[in-house]
Queue: 3 jobs
Job 1
Amino acid sequence: MASMAFTTTLTRFQATNKFANILQKPWHSRLSVASPRPYQASRQYGSKSKYDDAAKKGADAAKKGADAAKKGGKQLKKDAADAANNAEQKAEEIAGKASEMAQDAASKVKRTAEDAAGKVKQTAENAWETVKDTTGKIKDTVAGKAEATAESAKDTIREGAAKVDRATKN
């Protein structure tokens, strides 16, 4: 009876527990599974399609990201080229303005030099006229005095000759 009680307990335990699987199957059959169980296969197939979808979405996202990076790189390159062109144009404008300013300054210096030369020339002409006038006045004064002196000398000689004549006649 004791063995019979153990057997009924064991059969009840097998029905309610997975312990029966361990007792019924040999160890080597549990270690190597030849084919998946039907419920595992459907779950595995569903999981595989989810992974495939996720992998496809990931690849699409990576492609979109690469395209966006490529587009951003092209835009960055274009912006850099535009900035370089703008800098070049501004440098040319500044160089042009500097050239214009230098030309303006040179023309102002030229005009100033011409004005100064004109003033020097006018001053020299005025000085020459003054020298001529003064020389003419000196000449007239000297000539006038020389004539006056000559007339005076003539008068003195005449007076002296008249005195001599009077003295000889007397």
Job 2
Amino acid sequence: MASFQYSNPLEEAVDGGHGGGAMILLKDCVENSGRFIIHQLLKRAHLPQSSDVVVFLAFAQPFSHYDRILRKMGCNFSVQRDKGRLLFIDIFSDDTLDKGNRGTGDEMIIELYGKVHRAVEDCGSHVMVIIDDVSLMELHGNSSPSLVFDFLKYCCSLTVQFGCSVVALIHSDVYSKEDHPSLLLQLEYLADVVINVEPLATGLATDVHGQLTVTRKRVGDDFSESRNRVQNLHFRIKDTSIDYFYPGSKN
């Protein structure tokens, strides 16, 4: 994330005061989507005081969908793309990937990684890679879970090599129904930060729409420090923004 002041408790919890690149896993469920966090990350990355460049891998919706939502939030997605601050890779578009050379889903995933690596390597500014979402990446890409995990593992290596951030959304309930939810478990192990989006534990409320559990791993190298830092937050979704706050801090 960019190096300016945190605008809400979620950004502070994710960054943990350490800065630098990170692999961030965003877990939600089909009926309780966490995609609003991706929308806010996109808006923040394209604030005037930010120098971030976003590489967006869209498996869920076309460009027009995100453009419409970001415009409501005060961000012109099309302008950011034209300025070179957004590389939008759409799995459904005709001109993003070379259909003639796809052959198999595995080949498409390999081609995708090549695009991501070149984009990160070419950008002098801080880069954020966003994948929306891993569950559909496996489905629409017609690829094996092992190759999808390899793709994300290689993307994670870019956080060390180039200092970029990688944000991957995954529907945890899709994998929890499997006998061996290996991909979800592997990604949880790989991630530096895991954000779990859940319904409010106490039930429905008019001013609170859900809760987040943010787990930041590998806090420090000193064995006297906690290896995991866990913070709980509540959120409220508005028309053009999201409020994040600590439980009990709002009446």
Job 3
Amino acid sequence: MNRGQMIAAGVHVYPDLYKNNDLRFFTYWTDGASTCYNTQCKGFVVANGTNTYPGQALAPPFSTYGGEQKYITLRIKKDEQTGDWSLYREDQGGPIGDMTLLGWWPKSLFRDLSEYAPRIEWKGLVSYHSDERSPSMGSGHYAKEYEGKEAFFQNILAFMSNGKRFDPEENVVFSNVDKPGCYDASAWFMGNHDGCHFFYGGPSGCSDE
């Protein structure tokens, strides 16, 4: 992310976009003026042989509260040869270092992001109309319930300009919860199995009134 320019990928439920409540994989980009989800406009290039398409509905089973947890592992990394921003999926294996290339955002889409991203965000997001109650985020429970009961990001890594990866340090990561009465985020943890990780979420029912 840089000066209003941003690329993003993940999973979401977006009834206004898809006209249903399916959980879907998405890609997104904005150059500060134009915005685009998935392949609605020219921008994100889908790779040949991909196993997950932008806008694709994901099939159950999904995570259950207090039960088995499901996840998707994504990597966004600047290609050292082309300068494009490449998107990989890691949790289903693949031919490129046990990953599958899903596609890329050409560097020509951006002005400042053509070189590097000065800020990285891992986040949950909800939106709703001002006359509506807010939807739940994650499992619908607060982050204090932790593992097995709340949404999470885990094994979080970042990449330097030379392609080497590193664990983000706690002193350069901060939490920004703009609706603390509705949703929250845990502290930043480091574990042997889960690496850098945190939990987030909250119940439905908040109002802007």
